[in-house]
Amino acid sequence: MRRGLAAGGPAGIETLSCHTHQEVTMADPLKNLPRLPVERALKVISGRWKPIILYYVFSGPKRLSELKRMMPDITQKVLIQQLREMEEHGLVRREVFAEVPARVEYTATELGLGLEPILYALCRWGQRHAEARGEERALLDCIVRPRDEQAAAA
């Protein structure tokens, strides 16, 4: 596969060519982030699975197969895509261990861990929303707890 900048295209746009001679243009995810901070934050964590993936990696390093088991409704392709985007945005770190077979683990970075209280607040809001609508019996507990709250409970 050949990578190069698209001729005459805007900066940050890559054209990928493959053996079928078809070109696919992909925007660089970091170059197209909004300037408004709240919009930027929502763009970085947007997607059906990113908050859920973060939810699970907050508790410690996870292998791809572990994450797939925790989220059986996600396809492996989408899981890998979401992890790559979060790695690109600095939310998770991908570590490859020199073993046979190779072992890869994903861990939340300090920047990613900064989202922990935000995701916990969203979880709590979701619980309040369900309670207001009389649907709380169908919910699971919020397993994410901000680190300062975890320390206080210990």
Can you walk through the features of this model?
Strand 2 and strand 3 form a beta hairpin. The model is unreliable at 1-10 and 20-26 (pLDDT under 50). The chain has helices at residues 37-45, 50-57, 64-70, 76-88, 110-113, 116-132, 147-153, and strands spanning 2-5, 13-17, 23-27, 62-63, 92-97, 103-108. The chain contains 7 helices and 6 strands; from the N terminus they run E-E-E-H-H-E-H-H-E-E-H-H-H. It is 42% helix and 18% strand.
Observed structural traits:
alpha+beta; 154 residues; three-stranded antiparallel beta sheet
Summarize the structure.
The protein is of the alpha+beta class and 154 residues long. It has seven helices and six strands; from the N terminus they run βββααβααββααα.
Biggest beta-sheet profile: 3 strands, antiparallel
Low-confidence stretches: 1-10, 20-26
Helices and strands, in order, run as: EEEHHEHHEEHHH
Number of helices: 7
On the 0 to 100 scale, the average pLDDT is 81
Rounded radius of gyration (Å): 19 Å
- Please report which band the strand proportion falls in: under 5%, 5-15%, 15-25%, 25-35%, 35-45% or over 45%: 15-25%
What's the shape?
globular
Distance between the termini: 52 Å
**Secondary structure tally: strands:** 6
Structural class: alpha+beta
The main sheet orders its strands as 1-2-3
Q: Indicate the percent of residues in helices.
A: 40-55%
